[in-house]
Amino acid sequence: MENNAIITIKDLTKTFPMGKSSFTALEGINLSLGTGEFSGLIGPSGSGKTTLLNIIGSLDTPTSGEALVLGHSIGELSAKQAARLRKESLGFIFQSYNLLSVHTVFENVEFPLLLLKMGADERKKMVMDALEWVGLTEKVKSKPPQLSGGECQRVAIARAMVKKPSLVLADEPTANLDAANSHNILQTMLKLNKELNTTFLFATHDEKVIGYLRRKIYLLDGKFEKEERVGEDEVELKEVESGRRLSK
User: Which of 82, 84, 96, 205 could potentially form a cystine with 77 if both were Cys, beta carbons 3.0 to 4.6 Å apart?
Assistant: First the structure.
């Protein structure tokens, strides 16, 4: 990988069969993301952003070209190797939360650690640390149906962050939240990005999310359209302004 790149995409194309023809979801994508970035794939529905996020997350593979993630070529991984990469190094945050409704907040956040076969004491400390990061230690025994939408998404963030992954992939994480909860969630993720140096990559068309991104990668019809970089001071100003709005 180049320099400190955590993701390197080279001439990536993804096609899907459609009857006797095919549909090109991504075409000729080139992209490099460094450690600690807070970036987003931006575009309307059908632009290819979720497809690209799924390939980076080893949930899919390129048709041609290369996707290097943490030194692994996604197209060359076996199913078992891809599962190991996700288990050990990646965190996922989805718009639908994907929490287990019959289990407590603690058990939902603990689940990724059970896959890593850690001891109970170590798991407990890591789960409580993650819940403290998102401000939910008092909800440890609650179950998802007892929580608000914003609280459920914070549990999902804690679950994604509990193993301190190198990379967190977030697909429209604020889609089901109102403005106040959206800003709270985004401020939480930005704080974790700064404190843990975790790389965050979003797929979104939500203006609330876009306002927090330090790097904006625009896709249109499966192709790279343009890129914008925002100074950290501008993101911090956005965070302060959002806090003022929420406090009113």
Answer: 82
